[in-house]
């Protein structure tokens, strides 16, 4: 069975226009919206705290994030999300901050409610098979939507936003199962005050970062595995005090130096593409390659050379996928996740490549 991706209408990837600024809600308004944060309106626990669903006075469904407590970490998360929400222009593939509330004892963030939860939920959870596995066409639509959203964050005039936590948990699905990027609490806004231009240098590693059984995080690289020469790369970066994101998704140059560029997001996006296709978390794919003493690229390349790419494809698809598209997207994923940042394309290029492969658009006319 073959799905025709072109039979679906995709959200326009252009900017939807300047959004209204995030509203400062009163605590009373949020109590009314969530029925006083009732147990019936509880949705889930998240990094920030507790998530409730509710309805604003205009009837629009919202997700209200309530901080577990007001302390330094939650304040930093809150401020980051408000800053990003106030800076990013509207786009259908980027979650828009509707508003916030701050009191002496409480912190709240208000977002549109994503009824179909996160991509991670559909790939790794689906308790008791309560929902159908994502089909191939839906997965490709999610890939393109997520790419468009990330490209928008990277390329909106003078404001460039590095997400720093692109993963399946940060990609939400709206009522049409279209990708919407959220979770901005680790994001960095690049501006004249924090952006630097210069060289980034880090050791060459024998094995991919984050797959060794001895790995304990950002400082765990085995110094014995480094070759005599180092990698050297010139780019615009932001110096960070800590490495944000899941270790298996962080680009090697950022992991070792703390210098974050937009290409760290591209690296993570490549790993997410592989998760989307395989249904397996990135750490497990890395471990499978490591067990054969291969890099992830070498391991997957071997599967393609032996015409065994089907071993990588999520068995939940039950072979209902387009083989040519699968191979093209896997190659794009490996290009994005390449250990050499100079090889990785910009997200605007990724969008054009996906549109060309999946929609048959001319490479030069694709929008981001």
- Portion in beta strands: 15-25%
Principal-axes geometry comes out as globular
> What structural category do the secondary elements indicate?
alpha+beta
Please identify, by name, the CATH architecture of the largest domain.
Orthogonal Bundle
Query: Rg to the nearest angstrom?
Result: 21 Å
Helix content: 25-40%
- Biggest β-sheet description: 6 strands, mixed
Provide the CATH top-level class of the largest domain: Mainly Alpha
Number of domains: 2
Unreliable segments of 5+ consecutive residues: 1-14, 208-226, 362-368
Q: For this structure, what is the CATH homologous superfamily of the largest domain? A: Transferase(Phosphotransferase) domain 1
Element-level helix/strand string: EHEEEHEEHHEEEEEEHEHHHHH
**Using DSSP, what is the number of strands?**
13
Give the termini distance in whole angstroms: 30 Å
CATH fold type of the largest domain: Transferase(Phosphotransferase), domain 1
Mean pLDDT: 86
Q: What's the short story on this structure?
A:
By secondary structure, this protein is an alpha+beta fold. The protein has 10 helices and 13 strands.
Question: What does this protein look like?
Answer:
The chain is an alpha+beta fold and 368 residues long. It has 2 domains: 1-16 and 114-368, Transferase(Phosphotransferase), domain 1 (Orthogonal Bundle), CATH 1.10.510.10; 23-112, Phosphorylase Kinase, domain 1 (2-Layer Sandwich), CATH 3.30.200.20. The chain is built from 10 helices and 13 strands. The protein has helices at 27-33, 72-87, 119-125, 136-154, 252-257, 262-278, 282-291, 296-305, 323-336, 347-359, and strands at residues 23-24, 42-45, 49-55, 61-67, 99-102, 107-112, 160-162, 171-173, 179-181, 188-190, 195-203, 230-239, 259-260. It has a 6-stranded mixed beta sheet, sandwiched between helices. Strands 11-12-13 form a 3-stranded antiparallel beta sheet. A two-stranded antiparallel sheet has the order 7-10. It is globular, with a radius of gyration of 21 Å.
